[in-house]
Design a protein that fits this description.
With 160 residues, the protein is α+β, with helices and mostly antiparallel strands. The chain is 38% helix and 22% strand. It has one domain. The chain has helices spanning 3-17, 21-37, 45-54, 75-83, 131-140; strands at residues 39-41, 63-68, 106-112, 114-117, 126-129, 145-148, 151-155, 157-159. Strand 6 (145-148) and strand 7 form a beta hairpin. The chain is globular. The protein starts with a helix and ends with a strand.
């Protein structure tokens, strides 16, 4: 499916949610938190969809963890994720495919564009590294990010 079709599909699902009371409360809660914490949006729906679509340009979809605006930061989970090379792939699909949360609720992603493939007990794992390709992809899409130790923090919201 092309980018235009992905955008139309996403808009249809969001428009369906606009009458859902739970979704409306969720949006109001996010707006309240954004105001309290003075957060500014760095990502639009179209930018998110371009990022998800661009994952097909990579050799494998990199693993990531999500920090939602409504959640407290889990430093332990983030630290563990950053220190290890993932053996699993990331699911870079929108919420209606049971993958990423609704974009408006994402504060940031931490992405590790590396993959550890086991080769047996006596041989070290094969490490696939697409750090350079991922960085180039983010720069091409003008996405706000920080990079540290081959991990990328992609900001959906940033403090003023």
């Amino acid at each position: 499916m092309g980018l235009q079709e992905n955008y139309l599909e996403y808009r249809n699902h969001i428009n369906t949610l606009k009458t859902d009371q739970g979704y409306i409360k969720y949006i109001l809660k996010i707006q309240q938190i954004m105001h309290q914490r003075q957060l500014v949006s760095c990502m639009s729906y179209s930018k998110w969809l371009k990022l998800l679509h661009a994952m097909t340009d990579l050799d494998f979809p990199p693993a990531f963890i999500v920090k939602l605006v409504t959640e407290n930061r889990d430093l332990q989970a983030e630290d563990q994720f950053v220190k290890k090379i993932p053996w699993y792939l990331g699911d870079w699909h929108p919420f209606y495919h049971d993958a990423m949360p609704v974009f408006i609720g994402i504060e940031y992603l931490i992405v590790k564009p590396m993959l550890s493939k086991p080769r047996g007990r006596l041989i070290d794992d094969l490490i696939l590294d697409q750090t350079d390709q991922f960085r180039t992809l983010l720069q091409r899409l003008n996405i706000v990010f920080d990079e540290k130790n081959s991990c990328f923090k992609i900001y959906a919201y940033h403090s003023k």
